[in-house]
Specification:
The structure is a single chain. Helix content is about 30%, strand content about 25%. It is an alpha/beta fold. It has 2 domains: about 160 residues, LarA, C-terminal domain (2-enoyl-CoA Hydratase, Chain A, domain 1), CATH 3.90.226.30; about 160 residues, Rossmann fold. This is Lactate racemase C-terminal domain-containing protein.
Length: about 325
């Protein structure tokens, strides 16, 4: 028997699994901070005094990438220059959550000695005159990389540090250069994000990065895309606390179909696709009525209840696949 723990809001929840289970682990983790520091020091021009960070929460080693890059650029500046760091959390589409994420990122950056840190909420910075740190990650059913960030900002990038996020939310490698090849970046990330198994599971248990991402459904629903490429008729269990409810009005209107939002259309569509292919169960603080009527899923208060539900639909001997952190994960081939 093994205890499986998942992040759930500001705490963690667990369940015991006795047999027929697999816990997904990613052993390919980036460890070459010194190499990145040297590459930046040898390549980036001395006049670069701005860094723009496309921040994603819940990715192991991403903070280390940030600290390494910021320190390397700072070391090249003269005593009269001041390094400016801008942080964008554009992927989430919820200002209240983005503000919390900015504060988290700011604390990481402060440790490098930088004092001028700004929350970037619009395209007010020319990325071509800055070092851009932008993860390449499987997001909403496709790879979103530095090029998408530049398009969102309405400007071209110059020097780019692109952490490649592998399955289970781990930086597996870091690409760096001026004018990185977008197609190569996407191909590398698709490979890093993809996980398959020879044991065809009956139940898939997907966790997330916890608070603040799962405070609202709107900012964690994108994890539904983790199972988009799996074969039908499985039981999929998500653990999303959602203590602050569904999200803002833009998301709610998209969810109930009274309006359409470019930010949330793809996420809602991915959820509906999952709910149509599989039996979905959500461990959440959301009211059961919301889960059943809006998400077309089974509501559960605990992971134990969710697994009981899954085994009733399948069998007591059902095979269980556990993804403790579904960020950047693409399950495929089974």
């Amino acid at each position: 028997m093994v205890e499986v723990w998942l992040r759930y809001g500001k705490t963690m929840i667990f369940t015991d699994i006795e047999e027929n289970f697999e816990i997904v682990k990613n052993s390919k983790t980036w460890t070459e901070s010194q190499k990145l520091r040297e590459e930046i020091s040898n390549t980036v021009k001395s006049g670069i005094n701005r860094i723009v960070i496309d921040y994603v929460y819940g990715v192991e080693r991403f903070d280390e990438v940030i600290e390494t890059a910021v320190s390397a650029v700072g070391e090249k500046l003269s005593s009269s220059d001041r390094l400016e760091v801008f942080v964008s959390c554009w992927r989430y589409g919820d200002f209240s959550v983005e503000k919390v994420l900015f504060d988290i990122a700011k604390n990481t950056i402060y440790e490098t000695g930088v004092e001028k840190i700004k929350h970037l909420t619009s395209s007010e910075v020319d990325l071509s005159a800055a070092l851009v740190i932008s993860p390449s990650i499987y997001w909403d059913g496709e790879v979103v990389c530095w090029r998408d960030f530049c398009d969102f900002m309405g400007t071209n990038g110059g020097y780019v540090v692109s952490p490649v996020v592998g399955y289970c939310g781990v930086v597996s490698e870091v690409l760096f250069g001026e004018k990185l090849d977008e197609h190569e970046t996407v191909a590398i990330t698709n490979q890093a994000a993809s996980y398959t198994t020879a044991d065809n599971p009956d139940i898939i248990l997907v966790g997330g990065p916890g608070h603040p991402i799962d405070a609202r459904l709107s900012t964690c629903i994108n994890l539904a895309a983790a199972v988009a490429d799996t074969s039908p008729n499985k039981v999929v269990v998500y653990a999303f606390e959602c203590s602050e409810g569904l999200g803002d009005n833009e998301f709610i209107k998209t969810l109930i179909g009274t309006a359409s939002s470019p930010t949330f259309e793809k996420r809602v569509a991915a959820w509906r696709n999952t709910a149509s292919k599989h039996k979905v169960c959500v461990v959440t603080a959301l009211p059961a009525t919301f889960v059943e009527e809006l998400l077309h899923a089974k509501h559960s208060d605990t992971l134990d209840q969710a697994l009981v539900y899954g085994r009733r639909i399948k069998t007591r001997e059902a095979k269980v696949l556990v993804v403790e952190n579904g960020v950047g994960t693409r399950l495929t081939g089974f």
